[in-house]
Amino acid sequence: MQAKPQRPFHSRYHSLLLLVLFFLASGCQPTQGLTMSRTHTADEFFSGPHLELARAIERNDMAALRHGAEGVDLTARGEQQMTLMWFALLQQNPDAVRTLVELGVHPGDSAIEAAEARTPLGAALMSRDTKILEAMLDGGLSPNDGSDTPLLEQAVISSTLEHVRLLVERGADINAAPGPVGRTALDISTSGTKPEISIYLLEQGAEANIRTSTGVTTAWRVHNRIEDTPPSPLRDDFIRLRDMMIERGVEFPPPSPVEVREQMRAEGLTPRVPPGHDR
């Protein structure tokens, strides 16, 4: 009888990470019947001291996890490249996630290029609820984590209003504008289809009159969204956002990016001209 061919390692591990994302996105709980731990156990991935730590995660024994962590590389990969942090997510164990962060494991590490989320932090941001992200913050993750792409900006792009709200409540810099273009979380939020996040950020004191280095203003983005969106609740929300910006002194209709770049030159600045534009 011919042996059944084994799936390549890369495919096997990618499938495990898809399971992680499925359970986080669906909100399934260990008490709801279908669980990670019944399918994948610590013994499947780890050996030696890492096996004992993974078993502590399975038991939700944080004292044993802390005690056994001394002198152990907590970011080491086991079978199928599994790490303790990924395993904590696989077990849907926020206590273990929090403890591992407290012990020095950064959830933005242990990247897997083939996975949509790439890192445990990315998986937390893609989760349906905020419990994993909250555990990471409780463990010591800074709400302003990230330099090129701050955590709040990541949440605006890939998460829900509740993720954004959690980060703001924990002290995320609402007006951070990293990078050469200078886009803020509010400016980025207006490019998507979640105006409720834009409205929330504005209500929390986000600067409304943003001008990026390319001359594109937040007002211009909102104006275009209203112009390009057919009558719908989505368009109504962008209109509400526009009206809130007007109340805060923002000009509508706003000047075009070409006009803004000319204003910037008059101020002695050198705007970044987008490709395909002369001025």
Overall description:
51% of the residues lie in helices and 0% in strands. The protein is mainly alpha-helical and 279 residues long. The model is unreliable at 1-11 and 28-38 (pLDDT under 50).
Question: What are the key terms here?
Answer:
about 280 residues, 15 helices, about 0% strand, mainly alpha
Along the chain, the helix and strand elements come as HHHHHHHHHHHHHHH
Poorly predicted regions are 1-11, 28-38
**Mean pLDDT over the residues:** 88
Q: Helical residue percent?
A: 40-55%
Topology, number of strands: 0
Give me the Rg, rounded. Answer: 23 Å
**Helix vs. strand class:** mainly alpha
The dominant shape is: elongated
Number of helices: 15
Straight-line distance between termini: 71 Å
Entry summary:
This protein has 15 helices and no strands. By secondary structure, the protein is mainly α.
Q: What's the structural blueprint in terms of helices and strands?
A:
Elements: H1 9-26, H2 42-45, H3 48-59, H4 62-69, H5 84-90, H6 94-102, H7 120-126, H8 131-139, H9 151-158, H10 161-169, H11 185-189, H12 195-203, H13 218-228, H14 233-247, H15 257-266
